[in-house]
Amino acid sequence: MSDLPRAVRITEEGPREGFQIAATPVPTQDKIALIDALSATGAPRIQVASFVSPKRVPGWADADAVVAGFAPRAGVAYTALWFNAQGLDRAMAFKDRLTLYGSVTVAASEAFSLKNLNRDRAGQIAAQRETIAAHQAAGVPVTRVSVQAAFGCNFSGDVAPARAVAAVSEAMALAEETGCAIEKIALADTMGWANPLLIERVVGEVRSRWPGQAVSLHLHDTRGLGIANAMAGLRMGVAEFDAAVGGAGGCPFAGHAGAPGNIATEELVLLCEEMGIATGIDLDALIAAGHLAERVLGRTLPSALLRGGSLAGFRAKARAA
Amino acid sequence: MSDLPRAVRITEEGPREGFQIAATPVPTQDKIALIDALSATGAPRIQVASFVSPKRVPGWADADAVVAGFAPRAGVAYTALWFNAQGLDRAMAFKDRLTLYGSVTVAASEAFSLKNLNRDRAGQIAAQRETIAAHQAAGVPVTRVSVQAAFGCNFSGDVAPARAVAAVSEAMALAEETGCAIEKIALADTMGWANPLLIERVVGEVRSRWPGQAVSLHLHDTRGLGIANAMAGLRMGVAEFDAAVGGAGGCPFAGHAGAPGNIATEELVLLCEEMGIATGIDLDALIAAGHLAERVLGRTLPSALLRGGSLAGFRAKARAA
Fold first, then answer.
1. What are the φ and ψ backbone dihedral angles of A4, each rounded to 5 degrees?
2. pLDDT in tens, A218-258
3. Are A6 and A277 in contact (CB under 8 A)?
4. Is A251 one of the annotated active-site residues of the chain?
5. B108-240 has which CATH code?
6. What does the domain layout of chain A look like in residue ranges?
7. Residue B223 Cα, gap to closest chain A Cα (Å)
8. What is the ipTM of this complex?
9. How far apart are CA B168 and CA B188, in angstroms?
10. Which residue from A196, A304, A321 is facing B231, i.e. has the nearest CB?
11. Which residue ranges does the record assign to the Pyruvate carboxyltransferase domain (chains A, B) (predicted)?
């Protein structure tokens, strides 16, 4: 068990993931209320908005108002997502509230790149050059390499570990060529194709090849293996994860509408804390935020823990009995 | 990875688990249709009914008609559940259709024993003596030791590994004293308290102390860790699991109404087959049976895979594209 980290850092992506696929428009004030509730849980890092085209993601047309409206809490890093120079410009307007960094983002699957980013892989690399230049001109550091569909793809099928590693390699080469100091390699199971052994194999190869880089995992629970895959990541020493409160979200371009999205933050926190791995997050406060997310989104979220209830509550009752 | 088994045997408990908590009565014919659909998936073992008091579990008042009505398939073992001599009598009437065996069943938590079996632990041991004698008189072998609430309890809190092992020990002693040849130790996480390290610890201690016994796991996904816990069991060489199609079920006496029940069979099958562990089950047929279970039970079941769809389907589409 020696590879299990003593602490992990979870990036809460519930607001960004959840609102991008809300069936009916969520009032800006409700989005802000959820972000503020998440700030109070002890979450170290919250992704609060997506500066993407309102035509492609109508749920984030109000990203600017949301970011202007939430109440920043000391010690919490607030991040946002964007894919191009226009998105960066919108984010820059909030550089006092947001922790800004850029990513070199590639997809291991060309088919997904076409669906999600609207470009083939070569086009994606060319576009990344422009985006990196825009970040550098704006003084925003590009510190992360991010590989989407690193474990499989609904459109092209299995992604061999060698292909995932090659995608990391392409992105790292581009980062080096453009003078970006990369600190983290983020691997995303965007469509829920991973299994624990595949996680171990890919993470193992990435860690061996780039030993100086932190590895983070962005896992989806599309087919129910998300938390088992997170456990596999922990076993490989991964100490950074993305997750979404309630399991809110899901990629709008993945071809499996209605499937669960990101792993549920509260289930990841339970997994870690029950094994003595510190998250810094108050699980009961997070579960309460999950119930708020359900009210705000107007639907039952896939998290089992929101139904089962925290062990802390049952432990307290047992002690009192 | 050397402890991962090459094949596992899954007992499908969806019918027994699912119908015991159905909110509205399910017609007997629908129960039979689901059992027949499950028979066609290649499931090696299906628990088809619960011969319990109709007063306590009204959903199984028609157990006799269900067991009389399904179409047995060659090569599939059909089992049923009962807790006392009256239940055994009802099961004996179907000894040509059912694989009959008895269990020495104890709860690691006294509080749960009171809620679920209506007896304290001492009373439970006394009752087990009577039940064992009834099985022996009927010529039904008692081959299994079963420990409920082996990893924690909503009523009494944490169950230390030593307590779980002590419960196994009490049951094994009773089996030896009464001349039962035990072949399997079944550990149940009845209320979803386990985590992967706890599974490894308890299974490890049980395997070390009783090396001649097979260990099986009955895991609930109450708080979202069920499949990660199954993975931990696989890592410890466990090759027998209970699961319920769709994740149907949940214990009616556990104090967390609405929480997910057993791990979903199709998610366990996906986990195993993706890692090269044979289950003998046709996953797409099982997913179809899961959708049938949702229609029969009149509700959406918790399984993520029922929403996300099988990888086989996406792989076929990717090959055709």
1. -60, 130
2. 999 999 999 999 999 999 999 999 999 999 986 555 666 66
3. yes
4. yes
5. 3.20.20.70
6. 9-320
7. 4
8. 0.95
9. 11
10. A196
11. 8-287
CA–CA distance, B178 with B82 (Å, rounded to integer): 19
Give Cα separations from A199 to A45, A86, A88, A206 (angstroms).
24, 34, 31, 11
Q: Residue A318 and residue B157: Cβ atoms within 8 Å?
A: yes
Q: Does A227 touch chain B (CB under 8 A)?
A: yes
Shortest CA distance to A22 belongs to which of A244, A288, A186, A285?
Answer: A244
B195 touches chain A (CB under 8 A): yes
User: Is B242 in contact with B8 (CB distance < 8 Å)?
Assistant: no
E strand or H helix at B217 = strand B214-219
Q: Is A102 on the interface with B (CB under 8 A)?
A: no
Domain B6-100+244-257+264-321: CATH superfamily is Aldolase class I (3.20.20.70)
Say if residues B264 and B290 touch (Cβ distance below 8 Å). Answer: yes
| Strand ranges, E, within B266-320 | none
Q: Looking at the complex, does the CB of residue B6 fall below 8 Å from at least one CB of chain A?
A: no
The CATH-assigned architecture of domain A9-320 is: Alpha-Beta Barrel (3.20)
**Tens digits of per-residue pLDDT, A117-167?**
677 878 888 889 999 999 999 999 999 999 999 999 999 999 999 999 999
Chain B environment of A1 (Cβ under 8 Å) = 197
Q: Which residues of B touch A308 (CB under 8 A)?
A: 192, 222-224, 256, 259-260
Q: In this complex, how many residue pairs, one in chain A and one in chain B, have their CB atoms less than 8 Å apart?
A: 156
Token pair 């700030």: residue: A39
B6-100+244-257+264-321 and B108-240 agree in CATH topology: yes
**What is the side-by-side order of every strand in the sheet holding A142-148?**
A77-81, A45-50, A9-12, A240-243, A214-219, A184-189, A142-148, A102-107
CB nearest B318 (choices: A157, A315, A319):
A157
